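Escalation from tier 1.

The customer reports that the assembly of four entities below gives different structure tokens on two consecutive runs. Tier 1 could not reproduce it. I'm attaching the input and our single run for tier 2 to review.
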Amino acid sequence: MYRFTCDYEEGCLPEILRLMEQTNYVQTPGYGMDEYCEKARGLIRNFCDAPEADVHFMVGGTQANLTAISAFLRPWQGVLSAATGHINVHETGAIEATGHKVLALESPDGKVSAKALKAALDAHFGDPHSEHTVQPGMLYISYPTESGQLYSLSELTELSKVCRKAGIPLYLDGARLSYGLTSDACDLTAKDIARLCDAFYLGGTKCGALFGEALVITNEALKKDFRYMIKQRGGMLAKGRMLGLQFIGLMEEGRYLSAAQKANRQALAIRAALEEKGISFLIPSPTNQQFPILTDKQLAALAPHFSWDFWEKMPDGRNAVRFCTSWATKDEAVEALVAAVQKL
Amino acid sequence: MYRFTCDYEEGCLPEILRLMEQTNYVQTPGYGMDEYCEKARGLIRNFCDAPEADVHFMVGGTQANLTAISAFLRPWQGVLSAATGHINVHETGAIEATGHKVLALESPDGKVSAKALKAALDAHFGDPHSEHTVQPGMLYISYPTESGQLYSLSELTELSKVCRKAGIPLYLDGARLSYGLTSDACDLTAKDIARLCDAFYLGGTKCGALFGEALVITNEALKKDFRYMIKQRGGMLAKGRMLGLQFIGLMEEGRYLSAAQKANRQALAIRAALEEKGISFLIPSPTNQQFPILTDKQLAALAPHFSWDFWEKMPDGRNAVRFCTSWATKDEAVEALVAAVQKL
Amino acid sequence: MYRFTCDYEEGCLPEILRLMEQTNYVQTPGYGMDEYCEKARGLIRNFCDAPEADVHFMVGGTQANLTAISAFLRPWQGVLSAATGHINVHETGAIEATGHKVLALESPDGKVSAKALKAALDAHFGDPHSEHTVQPGMLYISYPTESGQLYSLSELTELSKVCRKAGIPLYLDGARLSYGLTSDACDLTAKDIARLCDAFYLGGTKCGALFGEALVITNEALKKDFRYMIKQRGGMLAKGRMLGLQFIGLMEEGRYLSAAQKANRQALAIRAALEEKGISFLIPSPTNQQFPILTDKQLAALAPHFSWDFWEKMPDGRNAVRFCTSWATKDEAVEALVAAVQKL
Amino acid sequence: MYRFTCDYEEGCLPEILRLMEQTNYVQTPGYGMDEYCEKARGLIRNFCDAPEADVHFMVGGTQANLTAISAFLRPWQGVLSAATGHINVHETGAIEATGHKVLALESPDGKVSAKALKAALDAHFGDPHSEHTVQPGMLYISYPTESGQLYSLSELTELSKVCRKAGIPLYLDGARLSYGLTSDACDLTAKDIARLCDAFYLGGTKCGALFGEALVITNEALKKDFRYMIKQRGGMLAKGRMLGLQFIGLMEEGRYLSAAQKANRQALAIRAALEEKGISFLIPSPTNQQFPILTDKQLAALAPHFSWDFWEKMPDGRNAVRFCTSWATKDEAVEALVAAVQKL
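Tier 1 run:
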């Protein structure tokens, strides 16, 4: 059985395990105030070319999102997001539990357009009775999106402009950032993201770490007292060094990108095999997640040897599913899947 | 430099690291639904002799506390706690951030007495205008307490009786549970705790794991839908298996207790050396935390070679400090400290 | 200038003012524990034929909604509502500020159908990973809806059945209840509502009172400790008797219904005049709110003498607006408006 | 039976009722945007000599407190208050329900001293691990306090200085402000309060209105978007004009002060009678609340003809109780009570 259900089904890059072993008995202060976290922060600032940025290590993605969003908003504000955004549909109301509404913007591809953003802002701030509705206080986007889509440099630049004009932060959820940055379809860099966003996180969990996400805050106004929020929301790990070690392992020798590049290549090989069979896709994805639409019969043929994630039932009865590769996917698994697809 | 500042300054028991390595490339489902978590749950149920208990793995202690407390209370209820309880003083308002007041009970030694508990309940429920004050909805205790104290079996039994009569859950924070259970002064067992409490957690982070706490819910009424809360509060780790592996490593071959027993022995050796020098203590502790009161001069003599945690300034100018041992403390470190104390 | 902007532009029924004057110097206990509140509760129980119901007086509608919804839900649950529901669009995130997501159901006419409700419940509870999404915990409907629509007895019965089968409360926001109950299009009674819903409120503010809404809880399981919630959310009026007096004034001699009946009649007269001119409506309404679609020129002609509420811009440039009558609308105002419409 | 239980047992000043009658059929916009609210705001700005202040009308005291405090704080901050402060003990956790801890300062007389305030701020901001505890974000005081005490001009000036140096707002709960300002023991003015505090409210409910409190915000930084908060917390009255009318009635012709002055005079007459009988007091109060300590037998003698509020049981078995006068207390009631006291 080869599993393609998601990109968090294995442990971590072996270099990270090695670091953990090498440092196991070294004594350090807790709560992220240790030398490893400090080193990892430096590597990340360097990676993003953002020497003044604050970097905080968070345990997971939902926690990074809820901590950042609730820290950045005032109580009467909500966060704009694509209706399909992770915070709107897959976090059990984590944002609302901090008191804030997710202001959902309909979007055909899971991306927020500058036009839709502007329309939402104009509708609110142009309303003479605006205090009766939630004030849009920031924009949340994911990169790649939940369906593997990428913003272009020009799209991100436009969003950033609209946000800055409106005085609201632009926050980017980079749970799968490495898969986006290394996609052939990507025309932007970590530096662009750091420059255009006010805060964002580099995913660790789905990109080769055991756990952990690196939240980068570039907007000076959002930096103050952030560690209080991490503690309050339950995210300040006593042995914070573990998170530092994850990101040292990811960042050193370019592993963060090279591991993702390989996974993208594998995903495209699977895509090519599916396309060759005339199988269509829910939405074309240039990253490590692929969303083919398969018949019950086709799925039954694959089921004995492969796993995937069910995505949604199509009106015609077929099934949109997700096949995911990761830093850990073996070539033999991909080859087996490609061969099986060819026999469908 | 030997650090005695706290019990989370190193990595983890080597057996845990080994498990992580051995299983690194095994593919499993995420979010704690894997075979390792399942195995760890069984080991813990067995350890507590609570075959029907629900066991959930939480990332850290503050998160375990805030998730459990906010799940168990209704919105108009608060949680009773010793004024010195961790949730009241060292979690940056994590409980209040979920909407609940911590109802602090004054206590000379950090323990809640059945008498004080009963008085608080009577005061509230006997008030004809009780709806103007926060309703006590559960009791939080820590074992050992923040200053290393233990409840006796008889004390815990009394608390449990009062809680059950009032219909409110008794919740025990066992961040350092293993140090309590293996103390010479302890007359209760994990089974007693499971039997007398409605929910509690076995600390992992401070007891030899990289991270993670195991929340055990024995009260049927508190079990429903708890995984929703873990997800909502940001605590559902994608690679949940890591937490399972921590507790397999701790539970197998009795390591959870044996590692703590050694640390307790070391702490008592340090205590003995201090007592021999006539040094007094803030409060006598039978566990791995010791709270001697030292002069500035004495601290200055120790500072080049040892670290500790500052606790509080005494009225006479001396300093109450904390020396902590852990599963990882080396005998040579203890010997060096003992020798240094003898020269004070 | 005659104002038709909304139904809360005047004071209150003169009989209420008289009651306030007559009782001004009578001394009573505070917080709703007085004889007037008690009498009003009896009148309302009688009105709804719900002798066992709990009745609480709330200051306003948003407060009634947020207090009831946050009291009834568990933290991981959200409230289902039509996307156009008042709690979803016009309360500045009041529900989310209590920690709960509003789960919006698209609806062409602002009503929730049993089918849409069932689909939402099935989608959630049929999902093997349901803990990653907000659990639907109750249903909110408004009667009449925000656009003046009514549920039929059969529709409400269906909704009630689905809710009871799923074990979730059905809550009805009756801000304009009296206008609904007295509409020619209404085929249900207050008794039906009390029987089919678990909780609902009889609007006072928009139905002739100075302020105040009467929350009726018929589901035994939702009654406990509700007064704590009123106090905590800032809604427990010290001089609670004022709210009791409002509802004595409304309920006595059938004023609650007769005042609304007159307003409905006036609204239909305005509708008839508009229809005669061939003016179309956003949505046909059988109650005191009418939503004609007028050109800029038509509005300009009316503007010197009448006020209304702007609703939305139509794609063709015309304007959907709202004309509202109330218990206080004078016949001369209606006659003037009808005459002006005839000249459009 | 004469009731002295509290100062909200009657309706309102007759002039307010008259205003409500006179304006009952005038049509105005809702939500406090009407001419009466505007006029009342002007009268209050004038009363406080604070021409630039923002004035908002709130329905009640708990709501004023929770709305202001949650608007002014950031999520990781708490509000400092005397342990006996209303927000800490008598609001059912309303502040915690907004996510913030009340940081209680012990105080013998219910007042916060500049020294205690400074100590709390120093303890927090001087702690190298401050992010593990709640950050003090504002100071709440009540004037008069819950036990009728007054801050002197010099005390308030000191508090204001410490707050401004620390950059935290000083907020004053003036539920009984008029009784404080007209006490013989008062050496400050409404203008002083407006100058020294960042926000405060003038109580209406307990000072002669049917309901309503006037929140005055003088600190520019706290003004922005406050109406959103009022709406979100359920406090934006549709017929907001009612609140405007209350404060026109209170402010015109100096009624706010003259009504309280009379009540203070009556309270002092009762105090004098009690003192003459050698009865001691829990705490001496120069305002409309008096806290004598009476035996069971003395209370039994008074019970047939008078009501009061039970305050607390004394160690010797006697009872501290509260006798309250108000704008509505009749001289005959005071005379009857004085006569009864003389016979004790």
